Task: structure prediction
Amino acid sequence: PVNRHYGGLLRIVLGKSLAYLLVYVPVSVYVLGVVPRLFSLPQIGQPATLALFALPFLLATIFFAMTVSVAVRQRESCMLLVVFTSVPLLFISGISWPGAAVPEFWRVVSWLVPSTFGINGYVRINSMGADLSQVATEWNALWAQAAVYFLTACLVYRAQIHGARRRLLARYRTLRDRRRNLQVQRLKKLS
Result:
């Protein structure tokens, strides 16, 4: 028989990611468009280019976070994870530390995180006036990360659903057996 329970896996992952995307699109517009204007920061990148570049970055980040989220058991741990990883990830991205000074191992590790390609592409678009063809490496890498992290998010969510279902069935069996034992005990007392 077909297990219809897992037919909703794509709906869960895509639904959650769409909800996150709807939250972060206005935030991105504010951070990338409004804030620089408020503080009169120089911007030579085209808004359409920034928007097109932000889409795969947001998707890759959302699916990456969904994948990593299964390792975090308590909500408070997310803040600790962000605090302890943000500065090293900023350094190995090559934007605040010379990229040539980053060891090869850490450079490869930085390719696993969407912020590396997102930061480098954004700087080239906004500070150097690059268009999408000039940041094609970063843009394509972000799309590839979005696809890979979408698949890993589906896999880890499926594992979570399997585990939750297994625990629920075990709990159900325990309660059912306990109820039967109580009924047997009552019948023995009555007889």
Observations:
- The mean pLDDT is 89.
- The two ends are 43 Å apart (CA to CA).
- The chain has six helices and no strands.
